[in-house]
Specification:
The structure is a single chain. The chain has 278 residues and is of the alpha+beta class. The chain has one domain: q2cbj1_9rhob like domain (Jelly Rolls), CATH 2.60.120.620. Strands 1-8-5-10-3-2 form a 6-stranded antiparallel β-sheet. It has a 4-stranded antiparallel β-sheet with strand order 4-9-6-7, with no helix packed on it. The N and C termini lie far apart (53 Å). The chain binds 2-oxoglutaric acid (AKG) and fe (ii) ion (FE2). Fe (ii) ion binds next to loops.
């Protein structure tokens, strides 16, 4: 039997390359096609679709031909077993975060989403809650990093629930005028120092996308005749040390009790509560 050691990783890489780091800073994201190991990909898929009862039941109703497409969504996603739990401080993830934003960061929250055939698109948006948002924002935190790690255990094809991004859009100042429509029309090319254009991604199973959550991104619809019955998407979000973001979750007691000293540091921060920025 293989002895589990701290060096065990769910990823094929141990650290980002120089080109990855440049892509993060210049483009606002890094795409990692097929970066999970076979074991990591299969373990994660099995854990989400079979061991997590709410999704297992949801998929059963999908098979029964529920005619109105209804995605599954949970935030925070706390019922994580071995594989999804390991993602939080896998050596590759830790190396990636530390080399892009430094060592002073915390785990913010996670979510899980299953998108079935027929589900509609998600328009261009930014998720950094203090960057530009309709919700209340905390201006003092605006320049701090907010990182989203998007996992696509069963992948996606272009035109079939694909993620798309506007590379470089994270560099445009968060004014009211800086809309995705105007960016795509070329109005902000000068500010971004490049031609801002849409990039539609296509990623095989076991892929991950690491983004600076100031980047504009969107998701296309899933056709009714998609060969893939549902697309699995799970996400972990990390933030630079500081006050909570809008979704910074409470850490379950069991997580804290089982945490290594390193993990404890990622978890030792306040969750979001109404009025916490005052
Ligand atoms: O479904 C995806 O691929 C990304 C979704 C997203 O951008 C979001 O939930 O904020
Ligand atoms: Fe998003």
């Amino acid at each position: 039997m293989k002895t589990a050691t701290k060096l065990d990783s769910l990823f094929r890489l141990s650290a980002p390359s120089q080109a990855d780091i440049e892509s993060f800073h210049n483009d606002g994201y890094i795409a990692y096609p097929g970066v999970l190991t076979n074991d990591g990909r299969e373990g994660l898929i099995e854990e989400i679709t079979q061991s997590f009862e709410p999704v297992r039941q949801y998929l059963e109703t999908l098979n029964n031909g529920d005619d109105k497409p209804r995605p599954y969504f949970i935030r925070p996603w706390n019922e994580r077993r071995e594989y999804s739990d390991r993602l939080i401080d896998d050596p590759f993830i830790t190396a990636l975060i530390q080399t892009t934003i430094g060592e002073a960061y915390h785990f913010c929250h996670s979510a899980l989403n299953i998108a079935p055939r027929g589900v509609g698109p998600l328009g261009y948006h930014q998720d950094h809650h203090h960057w530009k948002h309709e919700n209340p924002i905390n201006l003092a935190e605006r320049d701090n990093y907010y990182i989203q790690i998007l996992y696509y255990p069963n992948g996606f094809k272009r035109g079939d629930r694909n993620l798309k991004v506007i590379p470089g859009s994270h560099k445009v100042a968060p004014t009211k005028e800086a809309t995705p429509e105007r960016m795509l029309a070329g109005d902000f090319d000068h500010e971004a120092g490049r031609k801002l254009e849409e990039k539609r991604l296509e990623l095989p199973p076991g892929s991950m996308v690491y983004i600076d959550a100031r980047i504009f991104h969107a998701v296309e619809a899933k056709p009714f005749d998609s060969p893939q019955a549902y697309r699995i998407f799970n996400i972990d979000i990390f933030k630079e040390a500081g006050p909570p973001h809008r979704y910074t979750q409470e850490i379950p007691d069991e997580w804290m009790e089982a945490a290594t000293p390193f993990r404890r540091k990622l978890f030792e921060r306040d969750g979001y509560t109404e009025g916490c920025w005052n």
